Amino acid sequence: MIKQLAALTALVPAMLGTTVGVASAHSAPHATQAVVTLTYDASNAGQWAGPIKQAVQNWNDAVHNVRLEPASSPGSADYVYEATSGWPQTTLGPIFPGGNGDVQLGQQAVDEGYDMTRITAHETGHILGLPDHYSGPCSEIMSGHGPGTSCTNAKPNAAEAAQVDKNYAAGTAAVRPHHHQVVVDIWSGRVLTGSR
């Protein structure tokens, strides 16, 4: 019995060491993955400053392959946020460093009762390459206005975060689109979306 206990005592640390080694091996790909840093300029966003800060934090907390940070100077930003009087509209990405993205945060959506942080997170999702999915539930940022004004969720779900990570998985060497589409989010019952 004593020999069996001694054998178990020697075996447990060895087993734990193996388990720790396996866990480290599984997390290594995240550590070696090149993270793409996108910079933004919010100097013309006015009342949207708080919602932008929260939406950016929500995306940064959810994804691993891309990080959103304020630009050191307005002219160096990869994309800009600006307050407008119309409907929200955004360049459909994924945008990469050196890009030229534009997020217009439209007051008309706010006037209809939609949450500013949700609007900002949704429009930022377009910058990161996600299309609209208006038939989705409130738990999806890209469902936009679909769930109605009572939906204030501003955090991407796991599937949305996974798609953004996939969009940036190749780092800055990823294939980039040659043209950018603008997605106009009409947040009313009249027209759902358009692009130009």
UniProtKB/TrEMBL annotation:
InterPro entries: MetalloPept_cat_dom_sf (IPR024079), Peptidase_M7 (IPR000013). GO terms for molecular function: metalloendopeptidase activity; zinc ion binding. It is found in: Secreted. Its EC number is 3.4.24.77. GO terms for cellular component: extracellular region. Gene3D superfamilies: Collagenase (Catalytic Domain). Its main location: secreted. GO terms for biological process: proteolysis. Keywords: Disulfide bond, Hydrolase, Metal-binding, Metalloprotease, Protease, Secreted, Signal, Zinc. Residues 1-25 form the signal peptide. It catalyses: Hydrolyzes proteins with a preference for Tyr or Phe in the P1' position. Has no action on amino-acid p-nitroanilides. It comes from the Bacteria. Its cofactor is Zn(2+). Pfam families: Peptidase_M7 (PF02031). Belongs to the peptidase M7 family. This is Extracellular small neutral protease. The lineage of its organism: Bacteria, Bacillati, Actinomycetota, Actinomycetes, Kitasatosporales.
